[in-house]
Structure formats: C-alpha cells, structure tokens
Automatic annotation (TrEMBL):
Alphabetized GO MF terms: histone deacetylase activity, NAD-dependent; metal ion binding; NAD+ binding; protein-malonyllysine demalonylase activity; protein-succinyllysine desuccinylase activity
Cell compartments where the protein resides: Cytoplasm, Cytosol; Mitochondrion; Nucleus
Keywords, in A-Z order: Cytoplasm, Metal-binding, Mitochondrion, NAD, Nucleus, Transferase, Transit peptide, Zinc
Catalysed conversion reaction: N(6)-glutaryl-L-lysyl-[protein] + NAD(+) + H2O = 2''-O-glutaryl-ADP-D-ribose + nicotinamide + L-lysyl-[protein]
GO cellular component entries: cytosol; mitochondrion; nucleus
CDD domains named among the record's database cross-references: SIRT5_Af1_CobB
Organism the protein comes from: Charadrius vociferus
SUPFAM superfamilies assigned: DHS-like NAD/FAD-binding domain
InterPro entries, sorted: DHS-like_NAD/FAD-binding_dom, NAD-dep_sirtuin_deacylases, Sirtuin, Sirtuin_cat_small_dom_sf, Sirtuin_class_III, Ssirtuin_cat_dom
Name of the molecule in the record: Deacetylase sirtuin-type domain-containing protein
Length: 251
C-alpha cells in the first residue's frame, strides 16, 4: 500500500468536514472478540447463526445468553489509543471550527466511552434494547440485564443452554407493555435504520476528507460509504494492518 504521510498531512490540514468510518479492527486492541474469522465461535455457534431475527424467534433465551455474555465482556473493556486519538481529533478540530463525525459499525460503545460526541452507530449498540411489542428503544447498562441471566452466557462449547422462559427474559418497562426486549443491534438480514442512513448520507456528501479505520470494507452497506466519497474525488485514507478489497479505490 502507498503511504505518503506528507501528502496526507497536507490534505488533513485543509479539511473542514472529516468523516471517519470505523469497524471491528479499531476495537480489537481493546480485547473485544469480533466473532469473525477463525475461532469466532460462541459455544457451537458463529455469530451469524445467533445474530438473526430467525434465531431470536426460535430461541430468544440462547440469543440473550450470547448478548448478555458480550455485554458483560464489554463492561470490562476500555478504549484503546485508536479510540482516544479519534476523540481527541474531534475535540481539537472542533475548537478550530472544523467538524469530525465518526460513523461506526461497532456496537461496543468504546468511541462513546473515549469521548467522541458526533457518533453515528449504524449497527446499533450492545447497551440499547428495543421492545418487540411497542418498539421503544432505551439505553440499558444493567449488569446482569435481568436476574435470570445472572451467571449465564459462558462461551465454552460444553455449556448447556439456560433455556430461560420468555417471561423471565428482559422485559419492556414502558407503562403496561411488558413486551420482550431484544438487543437494539442490526442483525444479519435486517436493514439499517433509515434515519441513521439519511444522517450518514448527509455527512458523506459534505465531507472533504474520509478516513477508513480498522474495517475490511466488506460488510454492506458500510462497505459502500468510502468508495462513494472517493468516487466524487474526495481523498480517502485507509488505516489498516493489511490491504483490503477497497484499498485500490482509495488515494
């Protein structure tokens, strides 16, 4: 890959609206399991077998055990130098009247923990729930998220399913609803929230520099964001450990 830092610094110094697109690679150094690639199993399943509306309809207890495990793991994790540098960049540039937006595929909230203010979480968050009955979305940092999940969710393949009855799984707290809650994350086979997509589109239209950090640019629709910016002649800088399918499209 072509690395011309002098060229990049020049472009960076002039940019007024910077869009930073981040993925799992940004959180890897914080010890966040990605459940992608080799060894990406929880018990006998890969994430894509659990993170679907069908899996949740079939076995909400198992899916909640998986997400409870991920929430508990995340509560012990901290932002790494990448998250902190990105938050610091936003803080410094905003003092100069320049804007930075972080568009992330991550659901771990580490950008938020690091202090990023202008954040678009396109795949939702581990620490938000959505009611399957009334649709209410709420922040939720309880540990455990409900009493029945306490001590559950162990990832090793020998662990038995907890088989928690639906009425003991997380329930909606809106007046008189009591609907079953689900994680407010975008699952495989689901579309992104159109309101968030509209905001992302707006940011991509005004940005004059785009950074791609720690994402392989293969998960759609996020994989299209940077190429779309590049196509209108805006510089895109990719920060990754290895070349990705999109590398050749960027400057």
């Amino acid at each position: 890959p072509h690395t011309d830092m002098a060229d990049f610094r020049e472009v960076f110094a002039k940019a007024k609206h910077i869009a930073i697109i981040t993925g799992a690679g940004v959180s890897a150094e914080s010890g966040v399991p990605t459940f992608r690639g080799a060894g990406g199993f929880w018990r006998k399943w890969q994430a894509q077998e659990l993170a679907t509306p069908e899996a949740f309809a079939r076995n909400p207890s198992r899916v909640w055990e998986f997400y409870h495990y991920r929430r508990e793991v995340m509560l012990s994790k901290h932002p790494n130098p990448a998250h902190i540098a990105i938050a610091e960049c936003e803080r410094r540039l905003s003092k100069q009247g320049r804007s930075v937006v972080v568009i992330t595929q991550n659901i771990d909230e580490l950008h938020r923990k690091a202090g990023t203010k202008h954040l678009l979480e396109i795949h939702g968050s581990l620490f938000k729930t959505r009611c399957t009955n009334c649709g209410n979305v709420a922040a939720n940092y309880k540990s455990p998220i409900c009493p029945a999940l306490a001590g559950k969710g162990a990832p090793d393949p020998e662990t038995e399913d907890a088989a928690i009855p639906v009425e003991d799984l997380p329930q909606c707290e809106e007046d008189g609803c009591n609907g079953l809650l689900r994680p407010h994350v975008v699952w495989f086979g689901e579309t992104l929230d159109p309101d968030i997509l509209t905001e992302v589109e707006k940011e991509l239209e005004i940005c004059d520099l785009c950074l791609v950090v720690g994402t392989s640019s293969v998960v759609y629709p996020a994989a299209m964001f940077a190429p779309q910016v590049s196509a209108r002649g805006v510089p895109v800088a990719e920060f990754n450990m290895e070349a990705t399918p999109a590398t050749n499209r960027f400057r």
